# Entry
Amino acid sequence: MASSSGTKKTRAPTPRRQSKAMSQAQKMFVDVQDEDSSAIDSELVPSSLAAIAPVLRVANQIEKDNPRVAYLCRFHAFEKAHRMDPPSSGRGVRQFKTYLVHKLEKEEEEAQHQLARTDPKEIILYYWNFYNKNIKEGQYTKEPEEMANILQIASVLYDVLKTVVPPQRIDDQTHSYAQDVQSKREQCENYNILPLKAIGAKAAIMELPEIKAALHALQNVQNLPKPSVHSTNAPHDFPEERSKSIFDILDWLSSVFGFQKGNVANQREHLILLLANMDVRKRDLVVYTQLRSSTVQKLMDKIFKNYWSWCKYLCCEQNTRIPQGSHKQQLQLIYIGLFLLIWGEASNIRFMPECICYIFHKMAEDVNGLLFGNVHPVTGDTYHRSQTAAPDEEKFLRTVITPIYQVLHKEAKRNNGGKASHSRWRNYDDLNEYFWSSKCLSLKWPTGLKEEFSVHSDVMPNKVPASKSMPKTNFVEARTFWHLYRSFDRMWIFFIMAFQAMVIVAWTPDGSPAALFDEDVFRSVLTIFITQAFLNLLQAALDIALSFNAWRSLKFTQILRYLLKFAVAAVWAAILPICYASSVQNSTRLVKFFSNLTESWQSQGSLYNYAVAIYLMPNILAALLFFLPQFERIMERSSSHIVTLFMWWAQPKLYVGRGLHEGMSQLLKYTLFWILLLICKLAFSYYVEILPLIGPSKSIMKLHVDNYEWHEFFPNVTHNIGVVIAIWAPIVLVYIMDTQIWYSIFSTLFGGIHGALSHLGEIRIIGMLRSRFQSVPTAFCRRLVPSSDADTKGRYMDKAMERRNFASFAHVWNEFIESMRAEDLISNEDRDLLLVPYSSNDVSVIQWPPFLLAGKIPIALDMAKDFKEKEDTDLFKKIKKDDYMRSAVVECYETLREIIYGLLEDETDRNIVRKICYDVDIFIQQHKFLNEFRMNRIPSLGEKLEKFLKLLLSEYDAVDVYKSQIINVLQDIMEIILQDIMVNGFKILERYRVQIQSNYKKEQRFERLNIALTQNKSWREKVVRLHLLFTVKESAINVPTNLDARRRITFFTNSLFMNIPSAPKVRDMISFSVLTPYYREDVLYSVDELYKENEDGISTLFYLQKIYPARFVCKLDEWMNFQKRINDPKLNYSDDDKKEATRHWVSYRGQTLSRTVRGMMYYKHALELQCFLESAGDYASFGGYQTMESSQGNERVQALGDMKFTYVVSCQLLGALKTSKDPRDRRRYNDILNLMIMYPSLRVAYIDEREEFVNGRSHIFYYSVLLKGGNSYNTEIYRIKLPGPPTDIGEGKPENQNHAIIFTRGEALQTIDMNQDNYFEEAFKMRNVLEEFLKSPSGQREPTILGLREHIFTGSVSSLASFMSNQETSFVTISQRILANPLRVRFHYGHSDIFDRIFHITRGGISKASKTINLSEDVFAGMNSTLRGGYITHHEYIQVGKGRDVGMNQISLFEAKVANGNGEQTLSRDVYRLGHRLDFFRMLSFYFTTVGFYLSSMVTVLTVYMFLYGRFYLVMSGLERETLENLSIHQSKALEQALVTQSVFQLGLLMVLPMVMEIGLEKGFRSALGDFIIMQLQLASVFFTFQLGTKVHYFGRTILHGGSKYRATGRGFVVFHAKFSENYRLYSRSHFVKGLELVILLVLYQIYGHSYRSSNIYLFITSSLWFLVGSWLFGPFVFNPSGFDWQKTVDDWTDWKRWMGDRGGIGMHPDRSWESWVDGEQEHLKFSNIRGRILEIILVLRFFIYQYGIVYHLDIAHRSKNILVYGLSWLVLVTTLLVLKMVSMGRRRFGTDFELMFRILKALLFLGFMSVMTDLFVICGLTISDLFATVLAFLPTGWALLLIGQVCRPLFEAIGFWDPIKELAKAYEYIIGFLLFAAIAILSWFPFVSEFQTRLLFNQAFSRGLQISMILSGRKD
# Structure
């Protein structure tokens, strides 16, 4: 090997024996090398050896040029690695060194010298050559990015040279080269967008005047004091760097406070781009040298609005003041730069906006002191202008950010992965709200961050002393359903009071609402205020109880308010009943009642009325303020002490949630919406739910019942109160729930009307597009062309302007069509029919797309041939009647003339053609055309023309043959024209003495042709178009055939007629970024994955070929389009290219990162096209964009695009993927690298985990790193050190977004998930939608989030996918439409919304990240935006694509995740604050569109339970027979009529209503009706009913016990059979158990109940309940592909038995063992609090009623009502369980060693059992029916015991009784599984069931000709 001295060769020692780790590492490297051998060693360097990665990368780059020098570089890297870590103690270092040794040994023999015989001379010569070739000659021609790489290589080469060559042998020339490289490298850095420090050709973006102006302003460091540098012993001390000159304001700030170099560079570019983009807007570019002062002021206003509000809230002075005489712009930029540098390095603290305000406040104070020599307000020290510089660039991180991060990290440890109670640890909100108190200002800076704020404990929460731990701040997220009441108390009070009032009125004799005017009734109605008083007391008590853990953090005034609220509520709760009791005897009439109000205060009758009047005074005042929203907004934001005192009682003072009131117009809109809704709801409740039950209730209360059928514990209870409760309880629940139904109805109606007024669906089919296409170019120019061209916006346009506008439209339209062809949505033929010529100057008419002109020429020819009249006018009138036909005829004539004229070389031939055309024109003008031309020969001319055009387009080998063919056909054409068609054509022949087809002439006419013209691209395009016009028939009316292409075309054209903001010029548009979080999902499917077969023998590629088939209704579709594209000989695809293209084709049809990136990069494409159209002018009319792409003009276009758009993908685990041993992970890394190379504008941010040695000890450090693509490598742009692992604190996705958000740019930020897509034509509208940020539709504020609609592209896979697609589509369209306007409660739902970036980065970011509570992190971003004064809109003229889950289990996991998230939302402070801060009607909107929907779902299921348990109680007690068989009660159907409402919710009709409306709007109501019918036939109601159970289970369990977690659903092509065990694991507790419970209730009611059997409504109710049961029990199997295939069923049974039989253990996955699964299923109980456990036990007690009720109905009981009957039943149950336990223990202990004894024992037990049963049958009267009834009685009891055992598991484990409970649980699992399997097996026995199920699941696929049965069965032939 090469030696370090360069004088001799030495061989590195070979390891004697490889360790296992080394072998594995070597294998890993070999595997990776197979994938990408060129990048192996530089890309997989251990993190502790990161410094050698550049050396190895250089070796890879130069290896092809000089292998020997590459070898020397690797050897240098090896020596350097050995010096860095001699003992190889770092992670992976030993393995890497071993690998490198083997590689060096191999290369030493293979790498030969090329330039010299020795290594020193070789590297010196190579270094010289490299310098002269690449640096000396290329520094003025090469791109800055290329020069940066070249200088990096040169620097590494010199380092290697110094190692190989002795110092004395390095000559002066080499030294001079090295010094030049070093000086240039100091001026050159890797850059993101702006090459601020670059060598090479000047980048176009740096020549933009706005960039120059911003850079000039930032470089103004005049009069800034220069910090002095002193050496320190701080780690990472860089005195040389600290002494460098200060180039700009950010450098100065960094030198003062110690910000990191990467952070400074990142924020420098960030600030320059912000200033440039804001300043250039509507700016004259002619004189542009400096920034406008208003620009910096505007940016400062946006960035510091939250800081100024914070200062005002804390009543402290702002530190952003501008002293008189100072340089205002410079000082403003210092403040802005300081804030951005703080934010850029704040890491997780970015989620704490007020903490950042505090940090800025303190640091700005230091800045002011340094600049103006102030005295420090705390220490009294005097600032000096000669300030000592920060000792190193990590000072700020070390002294400010890290202490706060450590608090966060230790609190995160206390939450036990999110499983601990929220009340026991502080989350982001708690820590941030600490800075809402003025006491934060008294902290000593910066050491105070380690004092009071950071008090914590490392021990478990329950061991933290109260005095040593910080309390929760302002709010406690306690797990209780009472949060629903506490957060929305006004709503509950209203509904309870309304219910009470309606019952009182209905209880009157006539039950008419007019009874309200009766004095007694009115007095009774007034008792609702007594109810309100008690409810207010409950609210006050909840405020105290639920916030108790936060009391130590509350101000005294807040605690006082809670106590006073409780005291006042208690006083009113006492006064009002007393006053009412004193006035009950008042018998005055109503008129006298009103008159008494003015009489003496001593009047006994008016005492209660006066009390009520006083009590209602705050409500009356609130009602008055409700109609003065602007006044109330001012009051809430006021800092006046009087106003604050006044508002203190109404609402506690909080930093957020102030001034949320809307303008008067919006307030009236949503108020009217809710008033109408509440009128309908209350009227329905009164007349349908309440009034019909009053009469039966009165009758029941009068009856006397003493004949009970069981032992009645309370036989003397009066009025049959148990019966009344059983009847009224379901009605009360329906009353609570049915508002949700009315909301669904009203939102559907209002949303539909709003959509229609917004012009949605006006163009929904291709036929509508054809009829309106003529107006599309005009609409395009009006909406999507910048308004600076005022004449284009005028009502009248001249021809030139019209053509220019059409040319602009043509460019965009054609790019749109070409993008669909590139995506294989359309074929080449479809593309040709849809394209529009770029230039229309060659013809006198507009050239419409050929699909509009299809068949027009043949029809016109037929019309001319058959035209019998002699008047030209009639013929041309017919042609002109159809504008498209006229355009086609004129275009064909003029284009054909141009084509022939261009072909002809002979001037005489041209004169003949010219004369013919002249005659045609002149005769048309003179109306003699029909007289001078014979129309009957037109068809023969048409045939020849078709042949002629076809020949021109054909490929040829022999030019002479090809030319002769064209000549022959052309001569035939001329002969037909001159001799057959033209009456006087012979005169032309005579004039030019022409003889056509003469054998006497050596040279004939029309023989001299310019054949080379046929290869001209633009000329050939004209021929293609003309050929299409002649040949395409009426069938082209169906173009395009692809449904997705049709949808995109119709939506795009329809959106042009919607209310879109005017398009600004690209330079004036708002700049924006797109951010996509990525974890570990698929990037591109590998070749192996494409062809890998599943258990059914189906590969992904085969599946997609069937989903996107080769033939679709006899038309080519996507797979065939793709095949034609890759097999096109012009593209010359190699076999490897075809494989790669196939990977992309498949990946673009999945939910992959590559699909998302491709879609988002359309933004860049659209921006470049827009730049071209704006700058090209008339040049655009000549197809200039196509030529521009390869010209120098493209540089400027790209520069503007880069300035306006940035795309960042946050791949937090990219480093782990790179070093992973899993080949799939390494392939993902390579695919991401390829994406960066494919899309140069793509940026990837990741978290780098690097091992470093400090003082000899290994430490892990974390960095946020930004990468871009290079030449086969990634290039690191910025590296910013973090205080610790950023993803350990909160939820994964928001933390992933947060670490990368610092690398985004612009004023807007679009959040895009990994399963989304975009389209070129929609990207073109982005600048329009960004203009919405500049509008103020609310009247007070500009929008902060713009909501966009989405297209769900996964809806065609199966019926389930269709259901989800329709449901999601209705949610992202009609639902959000109504949420935004008029309800004003739209939030952010994890979709493609666009954020006001500056607003949100200064207020906590684009999501919230606290563990568990912010599981649905996206919606909290919307809530946070609203609470902080934001405003959210929704826009439907633009859309993006989105994928959804397509399999049953995927969908259920998604629904479970959303339900978990809503459960956590219920507990959150955001929901509580919005519930209290929004006005009443807006609060109703908020409730019913968030957690209220899930509570209504839960109430729907509770209604079923309440109804059945109530009936069960009535039946088993005998009360049904005694009461409900009364004639007046029996004939009343009130209960059943009211329960119809519940069935509407249960069957999913709430979901269907918006779907039908939206489909009707966009596709037509006939299509909507058809889709609705098809959905029902496909069992959509089963699906929605099943998902209802999913929502209810996870929502309720989350609130009760917790257990929320992110549930990965997977995003693959999920159309496969799920095993029974998998379905059982997912749905056992959420559906199967509950379904069987309802089965038992229904069966028992069917057996023992006797009432209402003749009622049709009753039959509907019970059938709907049976439908619910069937859906819950068999839904997963109905929607499981091949769920009823016999062989699959057999395999599932085997798999389920294995799963049930395998014993669990530590590390055993739940998929492999029942015991492991059941432990995981009960995990939520381990962390549940005592309140949750008690409530769980209370709920379990319902199962004991079965046994109690049934045993008294057994024949063996002989109608005895004695309590001993129930006691004996328990004796039987316990005996049975003990016997089973004995058998189980005997099998384990004696089954092997004492087999015979065990068999004898079992025989004796069996004989004993038979004898006992015989005695019971013979002596006691036991019957067979009793046995079945006993099973139904004991099964629920055993289940109850089992559930109680699970809740009390720690207790039973302590006493050693857990194993029997576990065995009992397994027995129940076997029973449940067997019952389900029995039904499935019976259905599977019949083959037609499986076939029907396949048709049911894949109906859409069948209608498209798919062979799903082939896919499912694995047949490929």
Observations:
- The radius of gyration is 41 Å.
